[in-house]
Write a structure and sequence with these properties.
Elements lengths: L6 H10 L6 E4 L6 H12 L2 E6 L5 H8 L3 H8 L12 E6 L5 H13 L4 E6 L2 H5 L11 E4 L5 H5 L6
Parallel strand pairs: 1-4, 1-5, 2-3, 3-4
Length: about 160
């Protein structure tokens, strides 16, 4: 069954905005945030650079050492097979709530490298915003994802 989620249209609209900031996709666990971001990357970008803070402990060390987006991109490129290029690559930080320094780094991507499309997803993101490091207020866009709605289910293609 192929289901077309409304969130994909909202992500496409975010991509087209001239004043686009790094995006934080929020929502409960297990509703398809990762699937939505990867599908968005496949459809609208030449490359997708996917980084999971839940699966790769080495990412924490990168963000502990620097907040400079140029240095981060250089180091992150060693974790992905395709080059990370402005306007061509979607950068996904999944489960970003696991790394407060990565959340804070979104401010610097906004200020110093707005030509890069950066999205972050996480469950329980609100909990992590309340602890530790400062949050990049005004330097990120937010999008809320909800579980599948009945209209999306009805519009799904039935299996062949």
């Amino acid at each position: 069954m192929k289901i077309e989620r409304d969130i994909l249209q909202q992500l496409a609209a975010w991509k087209q905005r001239e004043d686009r900031k790094p995006l934080i996709l929020q929502g409960p666990r297990q509703i398809g945030k990762t699937w939505a971001l990867k599908t968005f990357g496949e459809r609208y970008f030449e490359h997708t650079a996917y980084f999971s803070f839940e699966r790769n402990d080495e990412l924490f060390q990168l963000f502990e050492r620097t907040k400079d987006p140029k240095r981060l991109l250089g180091q992150l490129s060693t974790f992905t097979p395709a080059a990370i290029e402005a306007h061509k690559t979607l950068i996904i930080f999944d489960e970003i709530q696991e790394c407060n320094k990565a959340i804070n780094s979104l401010k610097y991507f906004c200020e110093e490298m707005p030509e890069f499309a950066v999205v972050a997803a996480g469950s329980l993101l609100g909990v992590s915003m309340a602890r530790g490091d400062s949050f990049p207020v005004g330097k990120v866009d937010f999008l809320q994802m909800h579980p599948l709605i009945f209209r999306e289910f009805l519009a799904a293609d039935a299996p062949e």
